Amino acid sequence: MEFILGHLNYWLFIVLMMIGFYIVVARGNYIKKIVGLNVFQASVFMFYISIGKVDGGTAPIFPTDMNIDPNVVYSNPLPHVLILTAIVVGIATTSLGLALIVRIREEFGTIEEDEILEIESKLQAEENSAEGPAMGGRA
Amino acid sequence: MRHHLLLRVITKLLVGPILLFALYVQFHGDYSPGGGFQAGVIFAVAFILFGIVFGLAKVKQVFPPWLVHKLAALGVLIYAGTGVYSLMLGSTYLNYSAFTPAHPEHGQHWGILVVELGVGVTVAAVMVAIYYAFAARPPVIHDEEW
Amino acid sequence: MELFIILTLFFMLVVTAIAILMMRHLFAVVMLSGVFSLLSALLFVTLDAVDVAFTEAAVGAGISTVLMLGTMALTSRNEKMPRDFSPIPLLVVIATGSVLIYGTLDMPIFGSPTSPALSHLATAYLTQSPHDIGVPNVVTAILASYRGYDTLGETVVVFTACVGVLILIGGLARRRRKDEEGTN
Q: I need a surface site. Which of A35, A76, B86, C53 has the fewest CB within 10 A?
């Protein structure tokens, strides 16, 4: 019982992670894929933070006068540092992905994956029929 | 959003306190939750809010794009420069204790303050620059269609 | 009590995530992702990570919602009707999930004070930083001083992402082309 209660958190975060993963894999709209990626990312953050939690602990900030009570338990500050920077880097990379989506929309006129693949294969076929003889019919 | 009187008035009231709060978060980060990353984002939010309500042209007058782009680089330089300064004082890279050898803790305080300032400047400028880049594109969906 | 709060928040997170999965109206999807960020910020507070909660609330609910709305205004408002249901993504997801859950079986119990993550470096930071640095917020002390190299790297990554966005959609190339045409 203690084992289940102690690991329930991790499992719950993995369930959340997998919902995000499913959105990324199964949906064709690029904006939705980015949202799914954000859900996935946020669940990884929660998982990581939950590793640093200590029973009965408090936030790792000392009193301002620095009179530290040795009986107070502080949570592990290291995951907080790593995740804090990861969140800001995450939004910077997300915006890069969104910028790519905007460019894709300008080039292809759509942000649905299957339509883009269709256009791509059509372009490829045209190129092949035009360049085919020059490449010895193998292109 | 020229016709939304309420939004315009409330934005004018809010931009000042948001900037002030960003500065508080920036320089009080040693004592309470906060620091350069959060302060930079909050600082940028004030400009983004202003831009959404009053239009891109207005906010670009207040905070011109050339300044934004240069500030993004300046923040990184402040951070890296702090490390170079500690190198010049004969210590290792980013070792702030070298600033005041008689009292290493003070050096650490100074170093953290300067480094967090660099982070804050970069993050704020980057967020505003990204917002400008997105907002300057001609939209496909017009205001009435939302 | 703490477990109860975590479970409630988790339940709300799952409902939000499933709503994101089901909705086809992108405006609602983007707004729900903001809700998701705020809920995860609440969860971070219950897990004692106040700095992280602060960042997540400012970044996730503020900036990323604005950027996604901006992208939406430049692209489209609705998702196309989903393709016919295919079992392959579901199988991939279930397989990955079960492998990850198998991986957690060896992990220490949640909140255990003897977990390996707490035993070496974290204790050192908590006991040393009052003498080394003297800054009350240990997270700031680690972020800016002990792990200053990390943070320098992260700042450079943020800067690089900005350069990438400006190259892709910043319109700098177009402006230069216009200038050249003007001078010629």
A: B86
